[in-house]
UniProtKB/TrEMBL annotation:
Domain F-box positions: 1-35
Official protein name in the record: F-box domain-containing protein
Pfam families found in the cross-reference section: F-box
Species in which this protein is naturally found: Laccaria amethystina LaAM-08-1
Database matches in PROSITE patterns: FBOX
Amino acid sequence: MRSLTHFPDELLENIVEQLEDESLMQLSMTCRRFNFFALPTVLARANIDDGNITSLYLRDPPAHVVHALRLALFVQNLDSLGICFGGRTNTILPYARELCRLVSRLPSMKTFYMRFSHRVSPDALHPGWQVEVIRLLDLVVQKSCVFLYVDGGDGLSNALATGSQSRPTINPVGRVRRLLGHFRETMKSVIPPKLARLGGSRNHCHGLREFQARSFFLFHPPFIDWMISTLQTNSQTLTAVSFETHKTPASIWPDILSNVTLPFLSKFKLTGNLFIERRKLFGGYIMERRIVEFHDVLGFLARHPSIVDLDLYAITCPTNRCPPRGLLPALQNLRADPWLISSFLNRKQPFTFLTSLKVVSELYSDCRPFDYNTFDNALYLLPGGAPHVTALHISCYPEVGIAEWLDKHISQENSPLAALKGVTTLDLFQSWSMWRSDVRALIPQFLARFPQLQHLTYASPPPDVEKAKQTSFIREVMLACPGMKTVTTELGSPVNLDMLRN
């Protein structure tokens, strides 16, 4: 044998098995024969199947694993990629660079999910990490990405607030022009000439459709410029946008909501800030709540009549003026605070297509009890404001006050529940306190106040609730509500009451 490459396969396999990952990576880059033996071993040790896979999720992988993926042949088949960075901030910059090389090898990218740990510390951040992360996200979008998710990274807040000297700058105008040029060239290749002459047509198979911005740093420079320009660049294809973040200054939201217009937006979710901070004022401290202003949200909604699914939480209380006539004409699903829902429903023109309504309770950081009576106004307005609602979802998260509110509706002759003749599905969710004995005993009579209720989804029981108690609860509901057809207490396991009756 003239060299190591001429060793028999069995002997090479034994040699490879004895080497550590870093040595295997060096060996795999020497020639094709060693690459064939070494690279699959590195991936197998990381529990990565090197077969014909199209989706891959990496949870805080070692650096050599990302490098190995870049060299692997099967990555050409990937169309969904996710990575979760751990708490080591010194890995963000090199990982972003390595991921850029990996993504550049892919012919296209359908889904990209990037998550930063909420416990990440800014101490070991490399200067310029923002530029590399933006470069990676840009490259992903240019690879015909359809679903883009960015999450986590709350611990980087101090780095973004104090690192102005090392913070890179972005020219949003130049970047928009560059991305628009790329977008137009892409659309030329997918829009038939006849449609192009007629002004073009949205093509949801080519272009970003859903963007979830759930990371703190996306709402700070330089990322906020990137985010706004990316949304505008892909405005003709985006149908779903979600903003979920914490510790975001209230002044940020007007810039975002006023500078973004998405003609085909169908699903919009905005979770404002529930963060409570102590702010010094006149020698003392007050609690300040940073949340999104209602009038800013209203202006955004007025520009987007195509919204079908709307999820708003922690918005400031609306003013007394009614929303503009014709607001959200296509709305089908609404999830919001009770006072926001009341503001929407309190208008002369009802929501014709609204069929699903979720009323959400609030959880206060200062342990104040939630006033469940605030649900009542929304329930009173529901028959007139949204007469075709068939599915009602009620959040009962804070446990204080639930029993009193249920008992009030049981004993109240003019309870708004009696007028909800169109509601056939009820979902009581989110809280284990729904299985307290005093609350559980009131539920059957509470449900009986609904005239046409047929399906109930109840909060999943805690581990200490025996199966016998669950069965007894379902039978009590069956006796109190003759028209009830199914009761679900465990996800995906509805109980057919008609079969129990027979």
